[in-house]
Amino acid sequence: MALLDDIIAGAVSDTVSVPMLLRQCLVLSHQLGNDKLKVWVEQELNGYNDVEALPPYRVVKIVATGSFAGPMGNVLNNQPLAASILDEPLRHWANMAYLSAPIISYDIGKDNEGKPNGGRVQWPADLVGLYEDRFIQGWNLIRASQQIPGTIFAAILDTVRTRILQLALELKGAMTDETNDVGKLPPTKVDQSVVNHIYGGNVVVAATAENFSQLHNISVVQNDLGSLLSALKELGLLEEDTKRLASAIKADEKTGSKTIGQKTSEWLRDLPLTLGKGTLKVGFEVAKAAATKYVMSYFGLGV
After folding, report:
1. Domain extent listing, the chain
2. How confident is the model at residue 211 (pLDDT cuts 50, 70, 90)?
3. What is the pLDDT of residues 57-84, one digit of tens each?
4. Contact 291, 275 (CB under 8 A)
5. Would you put residue 47 in left (φ > 0), alpha (ψ -120 to 50) or beta?
6. What is the rounded average pLDDT of the residues 209-225?
7. Among 72, 122, 206, 280, which one has the highest count of C-beta atoms within 10 angstroms of its own C-beta?
8. Is 290 left (phi over 0), alpha (psi -120 to 50) or beta?
9. Integer angstrom CA distances of residue 252 from 208, 223, 249, 258
């Protein structure tokens, strides 16, 4: 019970950092023998390798801004970028941020006025090049980034701290004189508490935590078709559909396209039907996000 008391005391104190609380929860997960808690803690500490595993509090609405070069050497900075200009699979770069870095990356303090510091996520160079002449006529986009307000970082830290506190309080409430060892708590009770307080009651996410950890080991190398097809097969797509994608990519390459072409776009458009034919290792929406991410990564446009 001493560990639970330390976690509770740390969660209600601003002097104990969220990464420290998470490390204590990592110890707790081993004492409890609960893999769902362990997976969440490790992802928060080390970062999420796959955006489909991100909890809702790490997927946030943002705005994107860009710098443009124009006639006579003129430059326009900090210009808002309309999401509608981007094709659907890439539109999130202008209106949605997937914050997958280790949580310590967002604990960056406050400015001189006491407001939480914000940050930015740069667009990939290939994405900038793809849309360089699409936003302002006669001006070329030379750089762009997602603008992340400091309040978002503060909210992520507070959400994680609160979830830890709620879990620790419920586990302590389940302790009795006969069950004074946290490791002796009924596994079903522990599992239910983790699902409710850590995963927000999302049983689907919690139940597939083990599959998420396996998917984290999957990576797609830019311009490496073999790694892309292997990733999609690992996700559960049928071979006939991965071959169809390979043919689409090769057909687009023959037209001189170095990014997502017409045939590949058609494959992405038909993705819901494609997923319905396979035996997926995770839920449909998760698989859709993962497959799209893999294709984006192949073209160097990954999240």
Report:
1. 2-55+154-199, 57-153, 218-298
2. low
3. 999 999 999 999 999 989 999 999 999 9
4. yes
5. left
6. 69
7. 206
8. alpha
9. 35, 13, 5, 8
